[in-house]
Amino acid sequence: MKTYNYGNLSKDDVNSLTQRNVDPANEIRTLVEDVIAHVKQNGDAALYDYALKFDKVELDRLYLDKAELEEIAAAVSPAQQKALQTAYNNIYKFHQSQLKTEDKVETMAGVTCWRELRAIEKVGLYIPGGTAVLPSTFLMLGIPARIAGCDEIVVCSPPQKNGKVNAFIAYVALLLGIDKVYLVGGSQAVAAMAYGTQTISKVDKIFGPGNQFVTKAKTIIQSTTTTAIDMPAGPSEVLIIADETANPAFVAADLLAQAEHGVDSQAILVTTSQTIADATLAEVEKQLTVLPRAEIAKQAIDNSYIVITNTLDEAMDFSNVYAPEHLILATTNWKGLTAGIKNAGSVFLGNLTPESVGDYASGTNHTLPTSSYARAYSGVSVDSFVKKVTFQFLTDEGIQNIGPAVEILADMEGLHAHRNAVSVRLNNK
Ligand SMILES: NC(=O)c1ccc[n+]([C@@H]2O[C@H](COP(=O)([O-])OP(=O)(O)OC[C@H]3O[C@@H](n4cnc5c(N)ncnc54)[C@H](O)[C@@H]3O)[C@@H](O)[C@H]2O)c1
Ligand SMILES: N[C@H](CO)Cc1c[nH]c[nH+]1
Ligand SMILES: [Zn+2]
């Protein structure tokens, strides 16, 4: 990991240092556009082709049904079932608290406005399954979809080498009451859910994280189809702000936890302490040696860096420009820092709150904006699965009170039919 001194960095240096997953020659875009066009034109046939090309599996059917899921899920041990249930319960509890009925507001006497939630009818969930299969992501997307009350939930996940999904994905499907999982991964899955194929329904909104191909496909279909997306949730990243109260072994473990996701993940340490920086680097080297995914994590770590700052305020300034998916405040004094956080997907406070708890089971959602999209997007929540429909109701007193102002406002815009829709009611005495 390269080390930079914040005081020596210009604004331009900070801007270029905080860029990630750029595709300067548009290689990923071009490839993904081809995949999308092929799926749009050839439907299921394209999905069989891509399963062979990218997943190296020859499929004879594009989905697993309930009986097959039950058979596969039988391999989940009681201890694993219990852990999945713990995660399910905490995620459910936290997400259910997000469903709130709003008060009606009388803006003028006789004029009442309010909002009601309506579930998005057809949603598509993408569950990553490339270098690691992520049943936790299935919980993170399926639970809020169920709480919101979506009518149709389409689930796509890449086929594994045996042409199936693994036992944990099957088990979570059954836990969520979902009885079909499509064996489709990558950008082809996004295209299938956006356009629909002979087998897969077109959905209104696509959710879920994924690698650069998945994320690029989501951003393309967002601007080219009527299907919406949750957010760009690409390669995982973490930024840790640490002072001298941090524990280097903990900091190193948290950096590696995100680094092991993929070679394009990023793990950044911003610290006021050179001693902590040096000790963390030594710990990273030590811990890397025993990780089964060391090969992947090492590449991500090589693509990551440390920034030394004079103060925690400077560290927070850097973090706010970076806008990390995950922000860890590895300091006992975190309470004084939270007000300064402007841009972050999910925040982990103090030295005893590893990011992994949010990945799996604390209750918060792990589907979060990456590549600095945390500047404008929130992570997935129940809100992501609903629309908020506004209502208004006017009494006789209401139209008398508000009508004259609306007539004048319509005149100001030269829209006489608008004015008339009010006048005919005011004059209807
Ligand atoms: N931001 C978040 O909220 C969040 C959450 C969980 C995981 N993630 C990220 O999700 C990603 C998961 O990536 P993954 O690769 O393991 O699984 P994935 O399911 O996202 O991608 C696998 C699919 O990518 C396609 N693919 C692979 N190589 C390709 C190529 N050369 N050309 C075209 N398509 C290709 C294949 O179809 C394959 O099925 C990781 O980067 C991880 O960090 C992010
Ligand atoms: N850290 C990922 C989000 O970037 C989520 C995850 C799933 N499993 C493990 N981690
Ligand atoms: Zn993770």
Automatic annotation (TrEMBL):
Organism encoding this protein: Mucilaginibacter pedocola
Residues annotated for Zn(2+) binding in this entry: 258, 261, 359, 418
Annotated protein name in UniProt: Histidinol dehydrogenase
Keyword NAD: yes
CC cofactor: Zn(2+)
Function: Catalyzes the sequential NAD-dependent oxidations of L-histidinol to L-histidinaldehyde and then to L-histidine.
List of residues binding NAD(+): 126, 188, 211
Family: Belongs to the histidinol dehydrogenase family.
Cellular component annotations (GO), alphabetically ordered: cytosol
Alphabetized PROSITE patterns for the sequence: HISOL_DEHYDROGENASE (PS00611)
InterPro entries referenced in this protein's UniProt entry, alphabetically: Ald_DH/histidinol_DH, Histidinol_DH_CS, Histidinol_DH_monofunct, Hstdl_DH
Residues the record marks as active site: 325-326
The entry's keywords: Amino-acid biosynthesis, Histidine biosynthesis, Metal-binding, NAD, Oxidoreductase, Zinc
The keyword Amino-acid biosynthesis is assigned to this record: yes
Residues the entry annotates as binding substrate: 236, 258, 261, 326, 359, 413, 418
Entry EC no(s): 1.1.1.23
Cofactor remark from the record: Binds 1 zinc ion per subunit.
An annotated GO BP: L-histidine biosynthetic process
Catalytic function, reaction form: L-histidinol + 2 NAD(+) + H2O = L-histidine + 2 NADH + 3 H(+)
SUPFAM superfamilies: ALDH-like
One GO molecular-function entry: NAD binding
